[in-house]
Specification:
The complex is a heterotrimer. By secondary structure, chain A is mostly helical. Chain A has helices spanning about 15-25, 30-40, 40-65, 70-75, 75-90, 95-110, 125-135, 135-140, 155-165, 175, 190-195, 200-205, 220-235, 240-260, 270-275, 280-285, 295-315, 325-340, 350-355. Chain A is built from 19 helices and no strands. Chain B has helices at about 1-25, 35-40, 55-65, 75-85, 120-125, 180, and strands at about 105-110, 130, 140, 160-165. The chains are: A mainly alpha, B mainly alpha, C alpha/beta.
Chain lengths: ~350, ~190, ~575
C-alpha cells in the first residue's frame, strides 16, 4: 500500500450542488405557505404528486441510461423542477396535469438532453408551456384568492377535486370559480387585460373585485413571499443579483415608461411586479444556472431579455402571463449571449498589448 | 418590341453579372493547399504502409480519390476525426483489417545478435537505422516512427518493438497510472506505509 | 510603459479579478523557528530538477565528493549544475522515483554522507560591485540557483535578458495556505534577503525594487521593513490577502496596474520578478560562494506532531523529513508536495526534496476533506467568478471533456495558471484543473507528434529522392557500360574479322561457366564429396560454403523462434 493519490486542489469550499438545490427549495417555503393560505390545500397535493413522479421518472431514465442512480437522485435537481412546476399550475388542476407536466419536464426536457446540466431549456417552464398550450382550460382555472372566493374547500374536498375533477358535493372547478352572481373569476392579470381589451380604462379595471391595494388580492402577497425567498437565496449566495435585477429592470422600466406616457391604458410597474409569476420567475426560475447565461454581463442581459419579453407579451400578446414563454425564448438566446459576453482573458486586453509595444 | 427590350435587358444583366463574378473569381481567389497536401498533413507520416499503400502520401492521394479514411492504425481515432472534418464525411471506427491502434512503439536492435545484413536499413522508410554491411546496426530512436517495417526482413529476428517509456514531461496526468509508475524503477528501497 | 511608471510611483495597489480566501492555516508552522535537520542516510539528487535539459554527470559511482562540489555540468547554459549537499560517497547513479505527480522514475545521483560535512574550497566575494554583471551571472549559474517560488526556472537565464528593467519585484507574497517557508526566511534572514535583492538590482539595472508581502504576515513585514530602511530605492508594498496574489502575473497586475500581455514575458513591460527565497540563494551564491544545496521546506498538516520549517538539504528523502517532524499517518493518508491548492500528492515518500519543493503537507481528512463524487456541471458560474485570468472554466471543462483541442486553444486554455481557485469553489466538485492539465499535456503531445510527423515526412521524402537518384545513377552506369561494351565489340569486330573463332571462344567460356555452376551445386549438396568436380571447383566454394552455413543456421534460428512464437500465440 502507498499513499492516496488525488488531484489538486486538496480541499474544497462552498455549498455542494445538492445543497444549492436544497436551498432553492427551502427558500420557496414562504411563497408556498402564502399560496396555500390564499389558494387552498391544492398546492401541497400538487407538490407531493410532482415530487413522486419526478423521482420515479428520474430513476427509470437514469437506470435506462445506465448511470449511477444514487448520484443522480442525490443532486436534488429533480426536486427543484417538480416543486417549481407544482406551484406554477392552478392548485385544483386535475392530477394528470401535473403528472404529464412533470414527466415531460424530467424525461424529455432534461434526461433526453443528457441529464443534469445538459438541458438547454428550463425543465419546469418547458413542462408548464406544454401544459398551457395542450390543456388551456385546466391551466387557467385559478380560483379566486381566499378573501373573495365563493367556496372554502377543506383538505378532503381539495383532494377529491384533484382526483375526480369535482368536489364531493358535485361542483366542478368551473362552478367553483363562479360567484353567486354568475361571473367567473379570472386572475388579476387576465381580468385587467380583458377589461383593457374591452375598452375600459385602467382605473375602471382596477375596480374589479379581484384587485387589491397593490395588485391582485392574494397574488400581491404571493409575489412578496417569493421576493422574500429570493432575498434568502441572495443572502446565501445561492444565486447572484444579475439575473433578478436584469429581469425586474427589463419588466419594470418599460412598464413605468409606458404608464407615464399612457396612464389610462398601461398598468404600472407595481402591478407588473406583484402579478402573476413575476417574483417566482425573477428569483427562482430565470436563475436556473443550467439554462441561463454564464458570465455576469451575460446574466444581466439574459434577465433583461426575459423581463422585456414578459412585458411585451403581457401587454400585446395573447396570454395574460408570460414568464414561461419569456424564459424559454431567452434560453434559446443563451449560446449567442454567452458568445458575445465572454470576458476578456488576462493578457488579452487591447490596453495590455498596446503597452507592450 | 417590349419582348426584345426585355431580352436585351436580361442579356445585358447576365453579361454584367457574369463579368463581376468572373472578376471576383480572379481577384478574390483563395489560395489553399491542394487537398492531397492537406490530407498528407493530417496523416502521422509513419510511412508504415499498413493502409495498403506504400507510404502516407500515396494514401493521401487515394483518400483524395475517394478511398476510406479509416485505414490508418498509427493515426488512430484522432486522425480519422480530423480527416472526417476535412473531407466532410462521417467519422467511422478504424478498419480492423489494417491493424489496431496501439501504444507508441520504437524499434530497438539487439546489437550483439545483429549480423549486419543491411536488410532492415533498406526497409526503413525514414532512414532511421544506421549501419553498413557486416557492421552492427542501430536505430536512431528519435527518428524512428515505430512503423514495424524493419522487423519482418530481419533474418535473425533481432529487432524488438518496445513501447515508448512515459517521461514526467510527456505524462498525461492519468492519476490511475501512478500506482504502476512508482514500480518502474527497479532498485528502489520503497518504504511503504500500511 | 509611461502608464506603468505613473502607477507604480503613486504607490497604489491595483486589484485583479476573481481570487478566493481559503482558510490560511499558516499557524502553527509559521510560529516555530527554522530548524536544521540531520543528514539522511542517503541523499537522492535527480539530474533534472527544473524545466529544461539535465546536465552531464561528472562523477562516477564510488567517487568521494565534498560539500558544494558540482556533480553535473550544465550544457551550453541551458541547465544548471547540481552540487553535493554534503561530503560523502556517490553510492549509485540510477533510476529513482521523481518528486513528480506521476511517480515516474528519473536518473538520479545517490550520495551517502560521510558525516564530516567537509566543504570544498570556497572563495567568498563580499564586494560583488567590483565585478561586472556577466561575471556575477556566471557565478549564479555555476551555483545552480533556480527560482525557488514556482517552476524552478534557472535564475541566471531569467536575469540574462538583454532588455531594460524598470522594476525588480521581489515576491514575498506566499499566498498559498499552509506554506510559510518564505515567511520564516523573511523573519529570520531579512538582511541576507536584502543583500540578495541588491545583487539582483545591480545585475538587472532596475530603477527600483518593489518588495511585495501579503498583509497576513505582520512579523515578516516588520522585519523586512527594518532591513530595507537604509535603501531609498527599495519600496515595501503590502498587498491584501487573497489567493493567488503571489502568482507572477497577478502580482504584476497588483503592483503595476497592468496585465502581462498573453504569451509575453514580464520583461517586455520592463518588469522582472524573483522570489525572496531566490534572493537569499543569490546572496549566498555570490557573497558566500555557497551553491544551492539546501532550502527551507514547510512541514505541516494535522498528521504531523511538530509542524514547522526546516532547512532541508536537497536530496533529503521526504520520509526522512516526515520522521523528523513526527508523522502519524491515518487511513487514506495524502502526502502533498506543495500547498493544498497547487501541490500534488506523492504516491510514495522515498522521493527527494528538490529545488522547487517548498512544502510537505500531510493533512488529516477533517482539515482537508478528500474530494467527493464529481457531479455534473450546472453552469453556476462560481468558477468564472473566482478565475484570476477571467477565463470561463465551465466552458473549458466541457471542451476538455470533448477533447476539442482547437476550441480549447481558442478559449485561451494556455492562459490558465492552474491556481485551482475554480475547482476549489466548484459546487459539483469537478476537478477542473486536472482536466485542464490533461488537455494541456495532450495538446503539447500532439504538437510534439506533429513535429515528429513533419520530420518523418522530410526524411521519407529525402529517402525517396535518394532512392530515385541512386536508381538513375545505376541506370546511367549500366547505359554507359553497355555503350562501352558495344564500342569494344565494334572495335573487336573491326580488329578481328574472323567471326567463327571468336564464336568458338565465347561458347567455350559459357560451357566452362556452366560446369563451374554445376560443380558448385554439387559441392553444396554433397559437401566434401565433390570429387567429380575439377580441382578448381572444389577449392573455390569453400568460403562460400562456410558463409552459407552460418546464414542457414541464423535462418534456422529465426524460423525456430517464429515457430515458437506462433505456438505461443496459438496457446
Amino acid at each position: 500500500m502507498s499513499f492516496k493519490v488525488a488531484a489538486a486542489p486538496h480541499g474544497h469550499s462552498q455549498k455542494k450542488t445538492n445543497q444549492v438545490m436544497a436551498w432553492v427549495v427551502f427558500a420557496l417555503i414562504p411563497g408556498v405557505l402564502i399560496q396555500s393560505y390564499f389558494f387552498g390545500w391544492g398546492v401541497w397535493f400538487q407538490i407531493l404528486i410532482a415530487i413522486s413522479v419526478a423521482y420515479l421518472a428520474e430513476s427509470i431514465c437514469v437506470w435506462a441510461r445506465e448511470r449511477s442512480a444514487r448520484q443522480a437522485l442525490r443532486d436534488n435537481t429533480a426536486l427543484v423542477t417538480a416543486v417549481l412546476l407544482a406551484i406554477s399550475i392552478p392548485p385544483l388542476a386535475p392530477w394528470w396535469i401535473i403528472v404529464i407536466g412533470t414527466l415531460f419536464s424530467i424525461v424529455v426536457v432534461k434526461q433526453v438532453y443528457g441529464g443534469m446540466g445538459q438541458n438547454i431549456f428550463n425543465p419546469a417552464m418547458a413542462g408548464y408551456v406544454l401544459l398551457l398550450i395542450s390543456f388551456p382550460v385546466q391551466m387557467t382555472h385559478w380560483l379566486p384568492a381566499a378573501p373573495i372566493a365563493p367556496y372554502d374547500l377543506g383538505v378532503w374536498q381539495t383532494l377529491h377535486t384533484i382526483i375526480f375533477e369535482y368536489t364531493p358535493a358535485g361542483y366542478d372547478v368551473e362552478q367553483l370559480r363562479t360567484t353567486v352572481d354568475g361571473i367567473s373569476m379570472a386572475t388579476p392579470l387576465d381580468g385587467v387585460k380583458t377589461a383593457l381589451d374591452q375598452g375600459q380604462i385602467l382605473s375602471e379595471a382596477y375596480q374589479l373585485p379581484m384587485m387589491g391595494a397593490l395588485a391582485g388580492i392574494g397574488w400581491q402577497w404571493l409575489n412578496l413571499g417569493f421576493l422574500l425567498g429570493g432575498a434568502i437565496l441572495l443572502q446565501q449566495r445561492v444565486i447572484r443579483w444579475h439575473i433578478p435585477v436584469g429581469f425586474l429592470a427589463g419588466l419594470l422600466i418599460p412598464s413605468l415608461l409606458a404608464h407615464v406616457f399612457a396612464p389610462s391604458i398601461m398598468p404600472g410597474p407595481i402591478f407588473h411586479a406583484l402579478s402573476g409569476a413575476t417574483m417566482l420567475g425573477a428569483f427562482f426560475i430565470a436563475t436556473d444556472p443550467v439554462s441561463a447565461a454564464t458570465s455576469d454581463r451575460g446574466r444581466l442581459l439574459f434577465g433583461l431579455l426575459i423581463g422585456l419579453l414578459i412585458w411585451v407579451i403581457r401587454t400585446w400578446g395573447g396570454y395574460p402571463d408570460a414568464v414561461a414563454f419569456a424564459v424559454l425564448l431567452a434560453n434559446l438566446c443563451v449560446p449567442i449571449i454567452d458568445r458575445y459576453t465572454r470576458p476578456t482573458v488576462y493578457g488579452h486586453h487591447s490596453g495590455a498589448k498596446h503597452d507592450a509595444e | 418590341m417590349s419582348f426584345v427590350v426585355g431580352l436585351i435587358a436580361i442579356g445585358a444583366l447576365a453579361l454584367i453579372f457574369g463579368l463581376i463574378l468572373g472578376f471576383a473569381a480572379i481577384k478574390f481567389k483563395v489560395e489553399s493547399d491542394p487537398i492531397v497536401d492537406q490530407i498528407d498533413e493530417i496523416l502521422p507520416q509513419t510511412q508504415c504502409g499498413q493502409c495498403g499503400y506504400p507510404g502516407c502520401r500515396p494514401y493521401a492521394e487515394a483518400i483524395a480519390n475517394g478511398d476510406e479514411i479509416n485505414k490508418c492504425p498509427p493515426g488512430g481515432e484522432t486522425t480519422i476525426k480530423k480527416l472526417a472534418d476535412l473531407m466532410g464525411v462521417e467519422a467511422k471506427p478504424l478498419d480492423a483489417a489494417h491493424g489496431e491502434e496501439s501504444v507508441k512503439k520504437v524499434a530497438i536492435i539487439r546489437e550483439d545478435e545483429c549480423i549486419g545484413c543491411t536488410k532492415c536499413i533498406q526497409a526503413c522508410p525514414v532512414d532511421a537505422i544506421l549501419g553498413a554491411a557486416k557492421q552492427m546496426h542501430t536505430v536512431i530512436e528519435h527518428e524512428c516512427t515505430g512503423c514495424d517495417l524493419c522487423v519482418e526482413p530481419c533474418p535473425v529476428d533481432c529487432i524488438d518493438m518496445v513501447e515508448v517509456e512515459a517521461k514526467p514531461e510527456t505524462w498525461q496526468w492519468n492519476l490511475d497510472s501512478v500506482k504502476q509508475n512508482i514500480h518502474k524503477a527497479d532498485t528502489i528501497p520503497v518504504k511503504l506505509v500500511e | 510603459m509611461q502608464d506603468i511608471k505613473q502607477f507604480v510611483e503613486s504607490g497604489q495597489i491595483a486589484r485583479f479579478p476573481g481570487g478566493i480566501h481559503p482558510p490560511e492555516r499558516k499557524q502553527p508552522a509559521s510560529e516555530q523557528p527554522l530548524r536544521r535537520i540531520p543528514y539522511a542516510n542517503e541523499l537522492i539528487l535527480p539530474l533534472r530538477q527544473h524545466i529544461g535539459v539535465s546536465g552531464q554527470c561528472t562523477v562516477r559511482e564510488g567517487d568521494h565528493v565534498l560539500k558544494g562540489q558540482p556533480l553535473t555540468d550544465a550544457v551550453l547554459h541551458q541547465g544548471l549544475p547540481l552540487h553535493a549537499p554534503t561530503s560523502g560517497t556517490v553510492k549509485a547513479i540510477e533510476q529513482r522515483p521523481m518528486s513528480h505527480a506521476s511517480g515516474l522514475p528519473e536518473q538520479a545521483i545517490v550520495i551517502s554522507p560521510d558525516g564530516h560535512d567537509q566543504w570544498r574550497e570556497r572563495q567568498p566575494l563580499p564586494d560583488y560591485q567590483q565585478r561586472d554583471k556577466a561575471e556575477l551571472l556566471d557565478i549564479i549559474q555555476a551555483a545552480g540557483v533556480a527560482g525557488l517560488g514556482g517552476a524552478g526556472f534557472p535564475t541566471s537565464q531569467k536575469l540574462a535578458q538583454q532588455k531594460p528593467v524598470s522594476y525588480l519585484i521581489i515576491n514575498g507574497v506566499e499566498c498559498e495556505p499552509y506554506i510559510c517557508a518564505d515567511d520564516r526566511l523573511m523573519r529570520e534572514h531579512a538582511r541576507d534577503i536584502v543583500l540578495g535583492m541588491r545583487i539582483l538590482a545591480y545585475i538587472t539595472g532596475a530603477d527600483k525594487t518593489l518588495l511585495a508581502i501579503e498583509d497576513n504576515k505582520p512579523e515578516a513585514i516588520a522585519s523586512m521593513h527594518q532591513a530595507i530602511s537604509e535603501y531609498s530605492d527599495i519600496e515595501l508594498r503590502v498587498v491584501p490577502t487573497k489567493y493567488p496574489s503571489g502568482g507572477e502575473k497577478q502580482l504584476i497586475q497588483l503592483l503595476t496596474g497592468h496585465e502581462v500581455p498573453s504569451k509575453q514575458l514580464p520583461i517586455e513591460m520592463g518588469v522582472i520578478m524573483q522570489n525572496v527565497g531566490t534572493a537569499f540563494a543569490v546572496k549566498e551564491a555570490v557573497i558566500d560562494d555557497k551553491p544551492l544545496i539546501e532550502r527551507v521546506v514547510t512541514l505541516t498538516g494535522e498528521c504531523i506532531e511538530h509542524p514547522g520549517n526546516v532547512w532541508a538539504p536537497l536530496g533529503t528523502p521526504v520520509d526522512a523529513l516526515l520522521d523528523f517532524a513526527g508523522f502519524k499517518p491515518e487511513q487514506q493518508q495524502r502526502v502533498i508536495m506543495g500547498g493544498p491548492m497547487m501541490g500534488f500528492t506523492l504516491p510514495i515518500t522515498a522521493v527527494p526534496v528538490i529545488k522547487t519543493t517548498n512544502c510537505i503537507l500531510v493533512p488529516s481528512t477533517e482539515e482537508l476533506p478528500p474530494p467527493g463524487d464529481e457531479m455534473a456541471c450546472i453552469r453556476c458560474g462560481a468558477c468564472a467568478e473566482v478565475c484570476p485570468a477571467s477565463l470561463q472554466p465551465q466552458q473549458l471543462q466541457w471542451l476538455a471533456k470533448a477533447k476539442d483541442y482547437p476550441a480549447l486553444e481558442d478559449n485561451n486554455l494556455f492562459d490558465c495558471i492552474e491556481c485551482g481557485a475554480c475547482a476549489f469553489v466548484c459546487p459539483s466538485e469537478i476537478p477542473l484543473v486536472h482536466y485542464y492539465r490533461q488537455a494541456k499535456s495532450q495538446i503539447r503531445n500532439q504538437a510534439r507528434e506533429q513535429a515528429k510527423a513533419e520530420l518523418a515526412k522530410q526524411r521519407f521524402e529525402a529517402r525517396q529522392a535518394r532512392l530515385e537518384r541512386e536508381k538513375e545513377e545505376r541506370l546511367e552506369r549500366h547505359r554507359k557500360a553497355a555503350e562501352a561494351r558495344k564500342q569494344m565489340q565494334q572495335q573487336k569486330a573491326q580488329d578481328a574479322p574472323e567471326q567463327e573463332s571468336n564464336n568458338d571462344g565465347k561458347s567455350s567460356a559459357v560451357a566452362a561457366a556452366i560446369a563451374r555452376a554445376k560443380a558448385k551445386k554439387a559441392a553444396q549438396e554433397g559437401g566434401s564429396a565433390g570429387s567429380e568436380a575439377s580441382d578448381e571447383a572444389t577449392t573455390q566454394p569453400r568460403p562460400a560454403q562456410d558463409k552459407s552455413a552460418a546464414v542457414a543456421a541464423a535462418i534456422a534460428r529465426a524460423k525456430k523462434k517464429k515457430q515458437a512464437r506462433d505456438q505461443e500465440d496459438k496457446q
